[in-house]
Design goal:
single chain, 233 residues, alpha/beta, 11% strand, elongated
Length: 233
């Protein structure tokens, strides 16, 4: 979807015909500017297939809307992705209709209600396999949850989203704590022993499993040999 330059238009509510028309108009304006700029530099116009495509990301899309643009599904893209006639270079993505696959995970996390909740649960199941993008997405979702917490009054939709993001926030909070503790342990090892070689690095995971006061005592009092003997497996 984003292999080359494109336009993304997300909608939290089902888009109307007017919404879709406005998106297409913005896309055509972008195309016109690109071609005009190339003309000013005496360059040939970009062929149709090289112009940015428009992806309308909708939590849901009604059948009348899809039918009004004579959209067609594509075997390559699968269920939930509906293409307008090719000259428009536009596709409507109905997030609630997407198949439950790893490839659609991040799109489904932009959905609503049960679609979003299932995607968040799946995100945690696959999290170790999604690095480094997964870590970035986790941070974004956690910060959005924090932002919602600062609002005086939430809509019903925002309340549902706030609850859906609770597990995300707790995971991010724990990961942040562990990351800070890891940095502290690395700094203490370097201060004690001058360098962080492979042997000392292999002890960090064991130190993280200890209570902070216990790991700090070991790092301050134990010799290198004592640390290796106590923490090596």
């Amino acid at each position: 979807m984003v292999e080359k330059t494109c336009l993304l238009e997300p909608f939290r509510s089902p888009p109307t015909i007017n919404d879709v028309n406005n998106c297409i108009f913005k896309m055509l304006s972008v195309h016109n500017k690109l071609q005009t700029d190339r003309s000013r530099h005496d360059e040939k116009p970009l062929p149709q297939e090289q112009l940015p495509r428009l992806w309308i990301l909708a939590t849901s899309a009604s059948e009348p809307l899809l039918n009004s643009y004579a959209t067609q599904p594509d075997l390559l893209w699968g269920k939930g992705v509906y293409f307008l006639q090719e000259p428009f270079l536009t596709a409507i993505v109905a997030i609630d209709r997407l198949p439950t696959t790893p490839q659609t995970l991040y799109l489904r996390m932009l959905g609503k209600g049960s679609t979003q909740q299932r995607a968040i649960e799946e995100f945690f199941t696959l999290f170790p396999q999604t690095e480094p993008l997964g870590k970035y997405v986790l941070e974004l979702l956690a910060k959005y949850r924090i932002q919602l917490e600062t609002l005086e009054q939430l809509t019903e939709e925002e309340e549902d989203l706030f609850m859906n993001l609770e597990s995300v926030y707790l995971k991010w909070k724990e990961d942040t704590r562990l990351e800070g503790q890891r940095v502290l342990i690395e700094q203490m090892l370097k201060a004690r022993f001058g360098t962080l070689d492979d042997i000392l690095s292999s002890l960090i995971e064991s130190l993280l499993k200890l209570k902070p006061e216990d790991s700090s005592r070991l790092l301050l009092q134990a010799s290198r040999e004592e640390l290796v003997a106590k923490l090596s497996h």
